[in-house]
Amino acid sequence: METRTLDVQGRRRRYHVVLPGRLPQRPDLLLYLHGSRQSGRVSPYFTDHTFDALAERTGAILVYPDGVGHHFNDARRALDEQCRREEVDDVAFLSALVREFAPARTFACGYSNGGHMVMRLLLEAPGLLHAAVIFAAAPPAPGNLLVPTTAYRPTPVLFMHGTADPITPYEGGTVELHGAARGEMMPAFAGAAYWAGLNGCTAMPHTAHPLPGVDVDTWDDGDHPPVQLWTLHGVGHVVPSPRKFPEALGPGTDAVVGAEVAARFFGLEGDNEGDIEGDQAPL
């Protein structure tokens, strides 16, 4: 992992790059945005290096950006952190990162605060992302949404949320992290349905049960970009991977690997001009 910097709007920003051993002629770019009080450097450890392995297998460039003060200035109105007080423009930073690499396609994954930042990126930089996966973060309730939705361009989005999440409850409501208010969030199912509506899809979702304890609701009418909600029963505030998580985040799971679900949703499995081949990985 190589640490680099980029000057954006008078502020030097830091990010960390993982380059696969073999790069296609014009590779895809995958952004992974960390959660509150984390950083890009610790993200590979938090995800048990599953995204690093994904980049190596598929030939995508993986970038772990750093938020200012260990937070991104996300789409929630209630966010009293350094990045908000200093009016940090993370949309400009992440957009500049994409221009820096000029990829074939750009995908983004975000965990918790990073997931909310991915939502803001979708709303304020329409067309920048080809698809997005959001872990342990539901859309803000209308009164807690900081930015308008009018510029949004329909984009495939996958939400993954545990029913035992002790920080962002699956059933929605007010979120508070270590005494810091984050405002009200939609329930996970209602939030995914809301995003499907932003995509123009008003059809009822199809529900599948690919594994014990895993429900997948898909809003896809064939005419609009799909939205999926992966409900992980009994799972906490995590990006699913084989690692053991701190007790405060709630239970993990060995049934699902979040990075592998994202790879399939993005269509990253072995599609880089035939340059990269890999075995099928488990969900």
Automatic annotation (TrEMBL):
Pfam families: Abhydrolase_2 (PF02230). Residues 104-171 form the Phospholipase/carboxylesterase/thioesterase domain. The keyword Lipoprotein does not apply. It comes from Corynebacterium mastitidis. PANTHER family: BLL1128 PROTEIN, UNNAMED PRODUCT-RELATED. This is Polyhydroxybutyrate depolymerase. The keyword Signal applies. InterPro entries: AB_hydrolase_fold (IPR029058), Plant_Biomass_Hydrol_Est (IPR050955), PLipase/COase/thioEstase (IPR003140). Keywords: Signal. Gene3D superfamilies: alpha/beta hydrolase (3.40.50.1820). SUPFAM superfamilies: alpha/beta-Hydrolases.
